[in-house]
Amino acid sequence: MAEVWKARDLRLDRTVVAKFLRIAERGAPAARRFKREARILAGIDDRRVVRVHDVDEAEIDGERYLYIITQYVEGDTLRTVLPTGEALSVARALHLATELCEALTPVHDSGLVHRDVKPGNVMVRHARCGGVARAGSTDLGGEEQLVLLDFGIARAYTAAGGLGGAGRITGTAQLMGTPGYMAPERFLLEPEGPAADVYSVGCVLFEMLTGSRPYVGDDYGELARSHCHGRVPSARAVRSELPAALEELLLLLLAKRAGDRPADAREVARALRELRAAPPRTRRPPPDPVGRLEARLDAVLAAEHTPAERARLLTEIADTARETLPADHVGGWYLMLRLARALRAASAPAAAAERLAPVAARAREVYGPSHRLTLACAVNLARYLGEAGHPMTAAGHLAETRTAVADTLPPTDPWLSEVRFDLAHWLETAGETGRAGLEYRALYEDYCRTYGPDAPETSRLYELIDRATSEE
């Protein structure tokens, strides 16, 4: 694993980046990759690709190191600039995507595939003053510039579209990269060309426009299946005001077959420039169905109603959402989660459980058991079922959730802790005090580590253990 440091070039009085790799012996695969990365970067002269100043070997404290000295780029990575779960303006997303494709164009022209295009490998800087483009900042338009980083797993490709053996940086049997942005052919170990980078650009553009990657999940196999065989998602289903031409371009970029995508970054940059030059639509965008339902929900919650009247109005909104929104509309899922909470607050837990159950099942199917939306649905669904008089059913749901996420979440994860605590609570409510006591006791050490042994949360848990034990 290489170490990266911000450093000062004393001879030329400039800030640089120093990347060090400890090598056990000359000619080791990692060392060869390291040197090839330097040669690749040195051969590309473009302001959007990080520049190499030097590469050499050195001995430090008796250990041999390779090092690359590269340009220091003032700014933030695109990963930092992207607000979590939020979308950028269309104009800003198109500008940044164009910059990214223009950075990749000389790479592809040099016969190379980057193979790890993702927000974390792209720096965003303010062209006018070299400042940092912060998350959630206003649309800076043409003042923002991108610089492409990290060519550690880049490869040369042949004219026929396959990867050239002599020019590759990674070994034949290695599958390296970031699964959330990898093209299907990479998972399938098929020949890769510039179209693999084009697919990654599509993933990044989709995330900038919607606030989420096209496919999400914590499990590698699940992500591989989604990228290779899953339905290509619609950005307009999440954000209805997006231009139809932009949706069509996204579908091309995310096509499963490399041959169905634009050939390279130059072609994508051309298409993006045409989209940016297109005149704005004169007609108003269609109203957002989720926005309308959210407005109705806010109005009901703000008004004075009896619990029964509020439950009736909320049920009407939930029924409308179920009838009018697509089954996989993520915005609709969050709306239904909020509606279910409001129904429960209106003393209608059974209605809340009925509305939330299909969303919980679909979220688990699409995102996997460890996703925060899936866990939020599971915890709330169990709560509503228990309050509706079905504590053992609630406990069963939570036990299943705990088992499903045991290998992916640490015991102290806040959501997993809530799942485990609620499981014990509903077991106790159902009269299973022995099992409840075991669950409470299993939580105690984790609470001590998380909150401290004298914290109110830990003291309350100790009281519950004592109560469950005395009732056995």
From TrEMBL:
Pfam families: Pkinase. The keyword Transcription regulation does not apply. SUPFAM superfamilies: Protein kinase-like (PK-like). Residues 1-273 form the Protein kinase domain. The keyword Cell membrane does not apply. Its EC number is 2.7.11.1. InterPro entries: Kinase-like_dom_sf, Prot_kinase_dom, Ser/Thr_kinase_AS, TPR-like_helical_dom_sf. Keywords: ATP-binding, Kinase, Nucleotide-binding, Serine/threonine-protein kinase, Transferase. It comes from the Bacteria. It is an enzyme of class 2 (transferase). GO terms for molecular function: ATP binding; protein serine/threonine kinase activity. PANTHER family: MITOGEN-ACTIVATED PROTEIN KINASE KINASE KINASE 20-RELATED, SERINE_THREONINE-PROTEIN KINASE NEKL-3. This is non-specific serine/threonine protein kinase.
